[in-house]
């Protein structure tokens, strides 16, 4: 999904992809199953870049991870992102149950098909699907078992992106992300479902670029 993003931003913006275990070249490593394990490791991985202005973008599960990371940075009195971008994730304050992670393999597959975004090739090859499911289940468990405590909002501005046909993270479900910040909040409603169309992705890239160029310009 993000493989070409580094070619689409101006030179002043350097995308840094986070490669979590259980996928791609870290496939052999067991995936995280809890936010409390994931976030501290993420903080340590990002320490080398925290002395420069940075922003966070999180899609679906990644939106919740980016939020948890921001709160953890605040707790440790480390630099905060200049902006938080979140997409296709219902607001944490709604405390909605997360589907899939505690269901049978058949139930998880049905949920994946409902969301879209997974190649039919995966579903057509049982051996491939068997390799794929544990990481998907673990990702959903990270969010599904993550507590949402009452806490002081961040001072980080947030821009949220929602697909107008997304049944999991509809615009109404993403609007309460505004409760996570005392700073500016914007919600961009885009064409598509949980996974955005090419037009929607272009809109996201343009919005991120505009926001960050403005921040860098002071």
UniProtKB/TrEMBL annotation:
Signal peptide coordinates: none
Thioesterase domain boundaries: 1-211
BP GO terms, sorted: lipid biosynthetic process
Regions that span the bilayer: none
Domain of life: Bacteria
InterPro entries: AB_hydrolase_fold, TEII, Thioesterase
UniProt record similarity statement: Belongs to the thioesterase family.
Protein name per the record: Thioesterase
């Amino acid at each position: 999904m993000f493989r070409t993003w580094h070619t689409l931003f101006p030179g002043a913006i350097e995308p840094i992809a986070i490669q979590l275990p259980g996928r791609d070249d870290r496939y052999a490593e067991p995936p995280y199953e809890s936010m409390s394990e994931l976030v501290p490791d993420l903080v340590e991985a990002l320490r080398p870049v925290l002395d420069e202005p940075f922003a966070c973008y999180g899609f679906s599960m990644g939106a919740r991870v980016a939020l948890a990371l921001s709160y953890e940075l605040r707790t440790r009195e480390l630099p905060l992102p200049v902006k938080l971008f979140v997409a296709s994730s219902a607001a944490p304050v709604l405390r909605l149950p997360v589907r899939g992670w505690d269901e049978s393999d058949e139930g998880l597959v049905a949920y994946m098909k409902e969301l879209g975004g997974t190649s039919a090739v995966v579903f057509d090859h049982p051996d491939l699907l068997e390799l794929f499911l544990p990481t998907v289940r673990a990702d959903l468990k990270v969010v599904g078992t993550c507590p949402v405590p009452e806490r002081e909002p961040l001072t980080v501005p947030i821009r949220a992106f929602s697909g107008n046909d997304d049944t999991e993270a509809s615009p109404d479900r993403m609007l309460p992300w505004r409760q996570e910040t005392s700073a500016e909040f914007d919600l961009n409603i885009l064409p598509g479902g949980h996974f955005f169309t090419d037009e929607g992705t272009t809109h996201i890239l343009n919005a991120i670029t505009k926001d960050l160029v403005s921040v860098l310009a002071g």
